[in-house]
Specification:
The complex is a heterodimer of chains A (79) and B (254). Chain A is an all-alpha fold. Chain A has two domains: 43 residues, no CATH class; 35 residues. Chain A has two helices and no strands. Chain B is of the alpha/beta class and 254 residues long. Chain B has one domain: Spore Coat Polysaccharide Biosynthesis Protein SpsA, Chain A (Alpha-Beta Complex), CATH 3.90.550. Chain B contains nine helices and nine strands. In chain B, strands 3-2-1-4-7-5-8 form a seven-stranded mixed sheet, sandwiched between helices. In chain B, strand 1, helix 2 and strand 2 form a beta-alpha-beta unit. The longest helix of chain B has 18 residues. Classes of the chains: A mainly alpha (79), B alpha/beta (254). At the A-B interface, helix 1 and helix 2 of A face helix 9 of B.
Chain lengths: 79, 254
């Protein structure tokens, strides 16, 4: 169990490094590269650099809020 | 304030010989108690440490008290003291009552359910002497430390809980919710009287208050082993309760 947990943790860290690198390149470096360069085909149009994180944030906060709300309602009912 | 604390400590510890009191709050620990006492005595006698154990028994229905009394006959009343209380009254009051019975100038708090191994106590003491600090805490989140017997979900919750608490409260300690710690007795008394939290947040508040009062906290990596007998669980209500009380602490500490 310990070894597989370590593996999952390792994958999570790798994923985080990849996302950080990719996003930084996309948002900070690609605007300075000519638009018909071959590397541009690996990145979405730039406005998605704002849209995707925003959607993730809203979904995440909603999920946490719903979880907290549900638990609070449940604990109130038990009383 | 902190400089005053430091100077009176160094003068007292150089004159008197250090004695360590281990406070063990118990509730339904009849299987674990003989093992933990045996481990404490072998580990500490190996290092020639002057110690005593105060068992704070909260009227367990499984006869933990009788087991404690038999152990007292074996190890002697010098080494084992028993405090029998009428029922569960919370961790803070168990420690406070334990302190009143203690004769040592240092106090070690640990769980009696075998999740904390007494072999780390000599390391705590060594760390304290080296740093000349008032508190030493065992940490699961430094290299060399860890958790055994938890699934990934439980590990993640514990990590995230610690992360949230340390971001909000910035106490400068890596393991906030741990409960295996060494305190100078007067420091522990002072911290407990100020502490208003319960459960996991009780341990968090101890560290936050210590930081606020300018006490230095040393850290020793420990391996935590989840309880072998009995169950420990974490439901969603507990998670929300933790968040609420951390937030509460955040609001009330300036």
């Amino acid at each position: 169990m310990g070894a597989s947990d370590k593996f999952i943790g390792f994958v999570m860290v790798l994923f985080r490094i990849f996302v950080f690198g990719y996003y930084t390149t996309w948002v900070i470096i690609t605007p300075f590269i000519v638009s018909d360069h071959w590397i541009q085909q690996y990145f979405l149009p730039r406005e998605y650099g704002i849209i995707i994180p925003l959607v993730l944030l809203v979904v995440g906060i909603t999920a946490i809020g719903t979880f907290l709300g549900l638990v609070m309602i449940k604990s109130k009912k038990n009383k | 304030m902190s400089t005053k604390n430091r100077s009176d400590k160094s003068s007292s510890s150089s004159i008197t010989k250090d004695k360590y009191t281990i406070i063990l709050p118990t509730y339904k620990e009849r299987e674990n108690l003989p093992i933990i006492i045996w481990l404490i005595s072998t580990e500490l006698e190996k290092c020639f440490i002057d110690y005593e154990v105060v068992i704070v028994e909260d009227n367990s229905p499984d006869g933990t008290l009788e087991v404690a009394q038999q152990l007292q006959k074996i190890y002697g009343e010098e080494k084992i003291k028993i405090l029998s209380r009428p029922g569960k009254m919370g961790l803070g009051s168990a420690y406070m009552d334990g302190i009143k019975k203690s004769t040592g100038n240092w106090v070690i708090l640990m769980d009696a359910d075998l999740s904390h191994h007494p072999k780390f106590i000599p390391q705590f003491i060594e760390k304290q002497k080296k740093l000349n600090c008032e508190i030493v805490t065992g940490t699961r989140y430094q290299s060399g430390g860890g958790v055994f017997g938890w699934n990934l979900y439980r590990k993640l919750t514990s990590r995230v809980a610690n992360y949230i608490a340390s971001v909000l409260l910035t106490p400068g300690v890596s393991d906030l919710t741990g409960s295996f710690r060494l305190y100078r007795k007067d420091v522990l008394e002072k911290l407990i009287t100020q502490n208003k939290s319960k459960g996991y947040v009780f341990q968090v508040e101890m560290m936050v208050r210590a930081n606020q009062l300018g006490y230095q906290v040393g850290e020793v990596p420990i391996t935590f082993v989840d309880r072998i007998f009995g169950v420990s669980n974490l439901d969603s209500g507990e998670i929300v309760g933790f968040l609420k009380s951390v937030l509460n602490l955040f609001m009330n500490i300036e």
